[in-house]
UniProtKB/TrEMBL annotation:
It comes from Actinidia chinensis var. chinensis. Its EC number is 2.1.1.33. The keyword S-adenosyl-L-methionine applies. It is an enzyme of class 2 (transferase). GO terms for cellular component: tRNA methyltransferase complex. PANTHER family: 3-DEOXY-D-MANNO-OCTULOSONIC-ACID TRANSFERASE/TRNA GUANINE-N 7 - -METHYLTRANSFERASE, TRNA (GUANINE-N(7)-)-METHYLTRANSFERASE. One of its GO terms (molecular function) is tRNA (guanine(46)-N7)-methyltransferase activity. Keywords: Methyltransferase, S-adenosyl-L-methionine, Transferase, tRNA processing. Coiled coil: none annotated. InterPro entries: SAM-dependent_MTases_sf (IPR029063), tRNA_(Gua-N-7)_MeTrfase_Trmb (IPR003358). It catalyses: guanosine(46) in tRNA + S-adenosyl-L-methionine = N(7)-methylguanosine(46) in tRNA + S-adenosyl-L-homocysteine. This is tRNA (guanine(46)-N(7))-methyltransferase.
Length: 304
């Protein structure tokens, strides 16, 4: 499968073997905003391979429908809502609340994964979990997935769905990542090969920037916990948030290498990755692109 999941081998090879990874394949196209002033009548290929006319998509499809179709093969049921009540989701949670300052309990990894020695990908702020489930389904025997999410109902539903899909390589934990990440991943028996932070809550007002999930201590914990050659993938549809993450990860350039040092042609003129390297868009990404937003992405690799 052409995705980044197999991109970080358990053994460390040459730094430049990254170039041959499907994860870093030179993109063949640049996605255009859906709401360009003149709407091109060309077809666009979704990450699930379905060709759609952009103009048609804009007129007849709403963004929740796009999410549903992009994740159609997960075939997730509505049973959770039927059995446990409608999942009403608060817009934002304040991660600085006292009740969220305790680290999440560390699970018994052997109970959670059928093979807890497999390489691990952690998605911070995993939202509904569909993105991670899509990946887990495609990499059943080669990778484990862990979603950290601060909204408990989303976590309950995601674990319910994972169970329904009989996925034994994925788990979601109700956790404030800024206080729980380090302890959780340090107890995981296998190597941490990939961490993603995708479209984190923007907390626009300056006085709330401290609520953003990407703070320097978390960045340092991520870098410390990754195996050499392990990767970090961050993205946002909000330029200011993307720049904030970029500045924080760029600061530790003695330990992290950005992909432009390996292959500059993967980036646009401003240093953002030209395309989504995962083979699947996150829900926020789908909504944002539908609205015409650009997604600002960076990928780093821990030095070997
Ligand atoms: C805008 S949503 C994006 C969800 C998903 N990554 C996507 O791209 O569709 C941000 C998610 O991060 C979660 N979140 C915010 N702060 C967090 C924290 N400190 N720890 C864990 N999750 C957090 C939010 O609850 C929310 O589900």
């Amino acid at each position: 499968m052409a995705s980044l999941l197999c991109a970080v081998p358990r053994t460390t090879g040459s730094l430049y073997s990254i170039l041959s990874s499907p994860f870093f394949k030179k993109p063949t196209r640049k996605l255009k905003p859906f709401f360009a002033t003149s709407i091109p009548q060309t077809n666009r290929k979704c990450s699930n391979g379905v060709a759609v006319s952009i103009a048609e998509e804009r007129e007849t499809v709403r963004s929740p429908q796009l999410v549903a179709s992009e994740y159609a093969d997960l075939n997730l049921s509505d049973k959770f809502s039927e059995e446990l009540g409608h999942v009403r989701i608060r817009q934002h949670v304040n991660p600085l609340r006292a009740s969220l300052s305790e680290p999440a309990p560390v699970p018994d990894w052997c109970d959670i994964y059928s093979d807890s020695t497999l390489p691990l990908m952690v998605d911070i702020g995993s939202g509904s979990g569909r993105f991670l489930m899509w990946l887990a389904k495609r990499n059943l025997d080669s990778m484990n997935y862990l979603g950290l999410e601060i909204r408990q109902k989303l976590v309950k539903r995601a674990n319910y769905w994972a169970n329904e899909l009989a996925l034994s390589n994925i788990h979601f934990i109700f956790a404030n990542a800024t206080v729980s990440f380090k302890q959780l991943v340090s107890t995981y028996p296998g190597p941490l090969t990939l961490v993603s932070i995708l479209c984190p809550d923007p907390h626009f007002k300056k006085k709330y920037h401290k609520r953003r999930v990407v703070q320097q201590p978390l960045v340092e914990s991520i870098v410390d916990s990754l195996i050499p050659g392990g990767r970090v993938f961050v993205q946002s549809d909000v330029l200011e948030v993307a720049l904030d993450m970029r500045n924080k990860f760029d600061t530790i350039s003695d330990e992290l290498l950005h992909v432009d040092k390996i292959n500059p042609s993967l980036l646009d003129d401003e240093g953002w990755l030209l395309s989504n390297p995962m083979g699947i868009r996150t829900e926020r990404e789908i909504h944002a692109e539908f609205e015409g937003a650009k997604i600002y992405r960076r990928v780093y690799q821990k030095r070997k």
